[in-house]
Amino acid sequence: MQQLDAQFMQQALDLAQRGAFSAAPNPLVGCVLVRDNEIVGQGWHERPGEPHAEVYALREAAQLARGATAYVTLEPCSHHGRTPPCADALIAAGVARVVIAMQDPNPLVAGEGITRLRAAGIEVSVGVLEQAARKLNRGFISRMERQRPWLRLKMAMSLDGRTALANGQSQWITGAEARRDVHAYRAQCGAILTSARTVIMDQARMTARHPQAQRQPLRVVLDRQQQLRPEHDFFAITSPVLRVVDGEDKVENHWPEHVSTLVLPATSGRLPLRALFSKLAELEINDIWTECGAELAGALVAAELVDEWIVYVAPKLLGDSSRGVLQLPVFQELVQAPELRYESFTQLGEDLKICARPRFP
Ligand code: AOF
Ligand code: ZN
């Protein structure tokens, strides 16, 4: 039974993944209904306001749901949100057993769905493929449990750890497949974080250009010194922008409607990143994707705000006179150097993609 449970839960996880470009700020959730070892209904959550995974699976199974086992990647909800409670729908359909990968970290649910199912006499198992389920919803879990989004820092570099020539020339260090991968992250995140300097130096627009993109992320640009003007190409694209500055505009600017401004007083010349992230969590941002220069990247690492590194390594050598990717304080002892652990390696065309996490979370 355990092996079968894992197998059906894996199918539910695969279904959940189908919402990757549309479900935020809701979590990715998949559900399969199984009777006599056969799938009789399946569903996934596609976008906020639309039915939850369980509802689609129950609709497909119709009468066959009675006595079936439901595999759900997240605890069925017990609250009236944009949609009615899934726990009640499963009870009403006469499901006999519910297998859940993980409890819902949303304080509105947080175990209440499980309690309700058990109270109705349904057998409930929790924790099947839990690690994979938690990985799938890192951003949602982070927002619910830490009141801050999950932050991924992108770095693209040569094999010798450089990102641009001394003269600043940097575009196309990595190949087409790596760039496509970057656009997939952009299209799935809630916000892209960057700095005014990167926007100006790279002429970056920070939009998601990916065939599966369904919407544009919020573009958050740190502009403490107010270097950006409304005329800049970055603002010509009308997807929402949040400018973060440390005081009222010094010169009068007419910002277009899609640009909003957040004033956060800086301390010792730095914008308060933690305060910014709480604000972004309040705006229901689950995942932040960061593309920036060595200074902001270093500040994020030093402040222990990076949850995941996505590193693209090109088989090129740029040499010591080229620019590095991270500005960190000068360390006197090796023990001061932040330590990571690798989570995965993938080859993307000619490049290598490494995903890493802090060693001591
Ligand atoms: C489930 N199945 O497929 C999803 C769940 O506003 P609502 O009604 O869409 O509720 C959103 C919340 O419901 C979300 O924050 C999370 O706690 C839960 N998501 N629950 O049973 C699903 N997407
Ligand atoms: Zn639900």
UniProtKB/TrEMBL annotation:
Pathway: Cofactor biosynthesis; riboflavin biosynthesis; 5-amino-6-(D-ribitylamino)uracil from GTP: step 3/4; Cofactor biosynthesis; riboflavin biosynthesis; 5-amino-6-(D-ribitylamino)uracil from GTP: step 2/4. InterPro entries: APOBEC/CMP_deaminase_Zn-bd (IPR016192), CMP_dCMP_dom (IPR002125), Cytidine_deaminase-like (IPR016193), DHFR-like_dom_sf (IPR024072), Eubact_RibD (IPR004794), RibD_C (IPR011549), RibDG_C (IPR002734), Riboflavin_Biosynth_HTPR (IPR050765). GO terms for biological process: riboflavin biosynthetic process. Converts 2,5-diamino-6-(ribosylamino)-4(3h)-pyrimidinone 5'-phosphate into 5-amino-6-(ribosylamino)-2,4(1h,3h)-pyrimidinedione 5'-phosphate. Residues 3-125 form the CMP/dCMP-type deaminase domain. Substrate binds at S170, R186, R209, E291. The gene is ribD. Keywords: Hydrolase, Metal-binding, Multifunctional enzyme, NADP, Oxidoreductase, Riboflavin biosynthesis, Zinc. The keyword RNA-binding does not apply. GO terms for molecular function: 5-amino-6-(5-phosphoribosylamino)uracil reductase activity; diaminohydroxyphosphoribosylaminopyrimidine deaminase activity; NADP binding; zinc ion binding. In the C-terminal section; belongs to the HTP reductase family. In the N-terminal section; belongs to the cytidine and deoxycytidylate deaminase family. NADP(+) binds at A156, W172, T198, D202, G293, A294, E295, L296, A297, G298, A299. This is Riboflavin biosynthesis protein RibD. Its EC number is 3.5.4.26, 1.1.1.193. Its cofactor is Zn(2+). It catalyses: 5-amino-6-(5-phospho-D-ribitylamino)uracil + NADP(+) = 5-amino-6-(5-phospho-D-ribosylamino)uracil + NADPH + H(+); 2,5-diamino-6-hydroxy-4-(5-phosphoribosylamino)-pyrimidine + H2O + H(+) = 5-amino-6-(5-phospho-D-ribosylamino)uracil + NH4(+).
